[in-house]
Design a protein that fits this description.
disordered C terminus; globular; mainly alpha
Length: 257
């Protein structure tokens, strides 16, 4: 596929590959509720905000946070004593969860005009998270494409794997945050979202440590640890996504009665 990778049209292939699965998942979640479905325009708007605005904010916030933590000697010493690759650990367990979940919360704002119940926040949060994951998957795919050890096949494989793993994590964690943001709006309590943001950060960090197990503990566990960690991460994300859908389905059954 070397010739295909050199073709400008292959970028379009990557974009389609990265965005179609999250869009399908978005529709799947939005349609879980048989009654009172959120308007397509607002759900798509949350997706786009997550794909563009949230990604840009997350990049800036991650750089700022990483630089700030790099200057705290105690933090670096803590991770250096416990992880083979402390910089990766700090990025995966601290920087990415804190910065990305906060940034994805901006995407949820697109659903504010139509948010009339707490569960509406689940839909808009999931949409924003899936938009974020689509762009993130595309960036990882491009990275694999230009990598000397990668190429066209590798880039498509990376996107496919991430579409059925990290996309579910982003959808479910930001759905939790969206629920909290909806609670803030509906109760007029400014900090009502905070416990849900903390849960989203913990979910994100848990997923990251599982997927990074092979890198974090490479010398101890090697490929076995990486495989087990990835399988556990996918299972974790699927369970989280299932819980979100069950919450929405429960609301559907209640409405039907």
């Amino acid at each position: 596929m070397a010739g295909l990778a050199d073709s400008p049209s292959f970028v379009l292939v990557l974009i389609i590959s990265a965005f179609v699965p999250p869009l399908v998942f978005m529709a799947w979640i939005r349609n879980t509720a048989r009654y009172g479905k959120e308007p397509w325009w607002n759900v798509l708007k949350a997706f786009v905000w997550g794909a563009v605005l949230s990604v840009l904010v997350a990049i800036v916030a991650s750089v700022v946070l990483l630089v700030a933590l790099g200057r705290i000697e105690s933090v670096n010493d803590f991770f250096a004593r416990r992880f083979t690759y402390p910089t990766i650990a700090i990025g995966a367990l601290v920087v990415a969860p804190i910065a990305e979940e906060a940034a994805k919360g901006l995407g949820v704002q697109a659903g504010r005009p139509e948010t009339q119940a707490l569960l509406d926040g689940l839909v808009y949060g999931a949409a924003a998270g899936l938009g974020f994951s689509a762009t993130e998957n595309l960036l990882y795919g491009v990275e694999a494409l230009v990598n000397p050890n990668g190429g066209a096949s590798a880039s498509l494989l990376v996107i496919a794997i991430r579409s059925f793993s990290s996309s579910f994590l982003h959808a479910s964690s930001t759905a939790v945050l969206g629920y909290g943001i909806a609670k803030t709006w509906l109760t007029n309590r400014a900090w009502a979202f905070l416990p849900f943001y903390i849960i989203a950060v913990i979910m994100h960090a848990t997923f990251n440590v599982l997927t990074s197990l092979g890198q974090l503990y490479g010398t101890q566990y090697g490929e076995v640890g990486e495989t087990i960690g990835f399988a556990a991460a996918v299972g974790f994300a699927l369970i989280a996504m299932t819980i979100v859908r069950l919450k929405l389905a429960g609301a559907r059954r209640a409405a039907a009665r």
